[in-house]
Amino acid sequence: MRTKIAGMGYYVPERIVSNKEFESIMDTSDEWIQERTGIKERRFGKAHLETTTTLGARAAEAAMSDAGVEKNDIDFIIFATLSPDYYFPGCGVLMQRELKMTKNEAGALDIRNQCSGFIYGLSIADQFIKTGQYKNILLVGAEMHSMGLDFSTRGRNVSVIFGDGAGAVILQPTDDDSEGVVNTVLHSDGTYAEELAFINPGCHGGYHSNKEQYGYPDTDFGGVFLTQKMWDDQMIFPNMNGQLVFKMAIQKFPEVIISGLNKAGLNVSDINMLIPHQANLRISQFVQHKLGLRDDQVWNNIQRYGNTTAATIPIAMCEARDAGKINKGDLVCIAAFGSGFTWGSALIRW
Ligand code: UT7
Predict the structure, then answer these.
(1) Backbone angles phi, psi at 148, to 5 degrees
(2) What percent of the chain has pLDDT over 90?
(3) 42 lies in a domain?
């Protein structure tokens, strides 16, 4: 028994935000952004009208239609995001309600894992399918980053990189050993948790650093999720040690890809299409050259969408398939590295 991708879909908001638009609100330039990241533009959802849940729902509808399954055929939902509508409950149940698919009361699991969220989700789904527990799993990766970024010059190393979007797949069992998920490899190292993180507001109370830094008052009774100092100092946005993330990414991407190939008894030359998480075009190009892959064996779309975190891989995979670049029998490799740090890879025989 294997897990196959029975359908895929994606949705990106209509509004295109060019690099030039950032020039008027912060100290940055189109040249800097293109040169350092490869990004030319990204999409931003409509504030108050679109959310991570609604973007995910649009992608899920497209994937269900592509797979030819009905809403109530879905027996499990996995939703990966780092930009949820609510702290809790998660987007899984919100999307279930949004799509009016509560009739069969299918379980909905929310996962974090940031940039690796889609690969972690695929791995979880793969286990549920292989054990026979579920027959139609809807896996969604979605982000509405634009609602939570620091658009002042202080946040420029993060805010110019991220974009909004969603991708989804329907996963089903297959008896055919010549298709489906070959394996998944998952890793993490929490040593670097704060190097790419969205820390406040939260329940940490300064535990990992010191409480003065965040202006926590002395209290025996909790109730200090958000402090005045956090607000006054605007410590309420994601932060990233870009250079460290970059260095680790270019080391871990090839490692985890090779590890998956070794486990399957395959070689780099067996890969037909590599779909790397879209964090930075320079990272993808480094990985491509390290592995010795040709340009037509790697799908990149960060130029048009920026980094949509949990959504980059399903969007890119769907685009590559629609462009006729992934065909029956192809070996597709997906890989990601990001906040946590978490990273992983998956090999899929199409
Ligand atoms: O999916 C999540 C995983 N994330 C990643 O994989 C991201 C990995 N890291 C990166 O992609 C890169 O590190 C960045 C694109 C974030 C930054 O590029 P960099 O080449 O590493 O630049 P840097 O951080 O070393 O900064 C170089 C300079 C600094 O100025 P000084 O100190 O040299 O005067 C920054 O302040 O560029 C400045 N800078 C900017 N300048 C214009 C940082 N952001 C910007 C900006 N516009 N948006």
Answers:
(1) -130, 25
(2) 95
(3) yes
214-239 pLDDT tens trace = 998 888 888 788 999 999 999 999 99
In terms of domains, do 9 and 67 share one? yes
Q: Out of 277, 280, 301, 318, which one is annotated catalytic?
A: 277
- Specify the pLDDT at position 212: 87
Q: How far apart are CA 35 and CA 15, in angstroms?
A: 23
Tens digit of pLDDT for each residue in 242-258?
999 999 999 999 999 99
Is 277 one of the annotated active-site residues of the chain? yes
* Final residue belonging to a domain, choices 143, 174, 205: 174
| Of 277, 260, 278, nearest in space to 268 by CA | 260
Task: Say if residues 237 and 199 touch (Cβ distance below 8 Å).
Answer: no
- Distance (Å, whole) CA 252 – CA 240: 18
The verdict on whether 91 is a catalytic residue reads no
Statement to judge: residues 125 and 251 lie in one domain = no
Q: How far is the CA of 45 from the centre of ligand 1 (A)?
A: 24
**Residues β-bridged to residue 5:** 171
**pLDDT computed for residue 7 by the predictor:** 98
Domain residue limits at 292 = 180-193+240-349
Q: What share of the chain is helix, strand, coil (3-state, %, to 5)?
A: 40, 25, 35
CATH number, domain of 259, equals: 3.40.47.10
The finding on whether 241 has its CB within 6 A of some atom of ligand 1 is: no
The residue annotated as part of the active site, out of 91, 115, 318, 333, is: 115
Q: What's the number of CA atoms in the CB half-sphere (13 Å) around residue 238? A: 24
**In a 3-state reduction of DSSP, which class is residue 133?**
coil
What's the pTM value of the predicted model, to 2 decimals?
Answer: 0.97
Q: Does the beta carbon of 115 lie inside 6 Å of ligand 1? A: yes
Q: What is the pLDDT of residue 57?
A: 98
- Do both 63 and 186 map to the same domain? no
- pLDDT tens track for 325-349: 999 999 999 999 999 999 999 999 9
Closest CA to 36 of 249, 240, 281, 226: 281
34 and 160 belong to one structural domain = yes
